[in-house]
Amino acid sequence: MEKLIQEYAEKLPEKIISDIIENMPAGTAAAKQKKIFEAVYNEYRSSLAEPGESVGILSAESIGEPSTQMTLNTFHLAGVSEVNVTTGLPRIIEVLDGRKTMAATNMEIHLKSPYSEGKDVTVVASQLRETPFESFVNELDINITNASITAKVDVKKIEDAGSDVKKVIKLLEKGVKGYKFSEEKGIITIKAAKEDNINDLYKVKEAIKDIYVCGIKGLKQVIPVKRDDKYVILTSGSNLKDVLKLEFVDETQTVTNDIFEIEKHFGVEAARQMVINEINKVLDNQGIPIDVRHILLVADAMTSSGSVLGINRYGIVKEKPSVLARASFETPIKHLVSAALTGEVDTLNSVIENVMMNQPVPVGTGLPNLVTKGIMNPDHHHIAKEDKKAKAK
């Protein structure tokens, strides 16, 4: 085995060799081991792109053509009508454009044992949901004589949500400035610090209803769902930072479909993987088989600069070193004028620039150059003849 590893160390990537060693059955004969390595090497060689192959055009065609067959609707998550999920072509456009504001953000929160087996999963889910003050209020009245607002709250409901009345009052004080809050026997009294007119009291009454007091901010809907004998919590809305702080959450599997949130907390490599996963998810749902290498190329192009950039004039097109390539996409005059002002040089290395200049494209057979020996100087030719004569004598 060691000889085989040394032999194929330069032929195969380290990851493939480690995968072979890991998956090879124990006690495999040496002859069979060699055949396995040979078969993997042949498969690896056949999977490589030929030098000069137009991988960008191939990928664009491979993804673009079947994408036109997709439905243009936004579906609900299978069996869960409360959680909206963007699928199909709208989702692919959203991912490839690198949009920071998405139509529907979602999370898939995995739980640690025993909650993943179903213990108190509904209680845990209710603690995650962003809850406004209105949800805990039984009565909300304005006392005109005292110029105050009284709110009768359900203390038990607040405690079940993993909070208490004191915490709720603190959050209300942050949300509404210039008012004093006090509580007695489940009744919260809100009074202005200085004289207040009735109109302002009515405004405050409406404002405090929507103040967030419990749960994770941003998680509007929370639904426990059973998957493969384990419970996961699906959410509408996303807040990865606060969710990962919770003790009962399995941080190794919890994900969000917000690629920029993934990049912020886990880095660009995780964001790259998320781009691949999200495109694959859409294509699998639509039943469209596309070679993963095309998607890998797109994900690499989007993240090669060190951050996620969309495929548009504000993203990867802006990063292109070629002036003509940038000008060919959108706003050509702007690019050409700014390049002229700064004295940029275009080395014409890519396809677009050479097409614009009516030159052979450096792709396929246009990639190699013919190298010829220079024509000899006539004087040199004469000297060479004299040397030959001298040697012959």
Overview of the molecule:
The strands form four sheets. The protein has a four-stranded antiparallel beta sheet. The protein has a four-stranded antiparallel beta sheet with strand order 5-6-8-7, with helices on one face. A two-stranded antiparallel ribbon has the order 1-2. Helix 12 (268-286) packs antiparallel against helix 13. The longest helix is centred in the C-terminal third of the chain and has 19 residues, at 268-286. The model is unreliable at 72-79 (pLDDT under 50). Helices cover 46% and strands 15% of the residues. It contains 18 helices and twelve strands. It folds into four domains: 2-47, no CATH class; 60-103 and 257-319, PTS-regulatory domain, PRD (Orthogonal Bundle); 131-214; 339-393, DNA polymerase, domain 1. With 393 residues, the protein is an alpha+beta fold. It has helices at 2-8, 14-23, 30-47, 55-67, 88-96, 121-128, 155-160, 165-175, 198-209, 240-243, 259-266, 268-286, 292-303, 316-319, 323-329, 332-342, 351-356, 378-392; strands spanning 76-77, 80-84, 106-110, 131-132, 137-143, 148-153, 179-184, 187-192, 212-214, 221-227, 230-236, 255-256.
Please tell me the CATH architecture of the largest domain by its name. Answer: Orthogonal Bundle
Structural class: alpha+beta
Helix and strand sequence: HHHHEEHEHEEEHHEEHEEEHEHHHHHHHH
Q: How many strand units?
A: 12
List the SSEs and their pairings.
Elements: H1 2-8, H2 14-23, H3 30-47, H4 55-67, E1 76-77, E2 80-84, H5 88-96, E3 106-110, H6 121-128, E4 131-132, E5 137-143, E6 148-153, H7 155-160, H8 165-175, E7 179-184, E8 187-192, H9 198-209, E9 212-214, E10 221-227, E11 230-236, H10 240-243, E12 255-256, H11 259-266, H12 268-286, H13 292-303, H14 316-319, H15 323-329, H16 332-342, H17 351-356, H18 378-392
Antiparallel strand pairs: 1-2, 3-11, 3-12, 4-9, 5-6, 6-8, 7-8, 10-11
Helix pairs in contact: 4-13, 5-12, 11-12, 12-13, 15-16
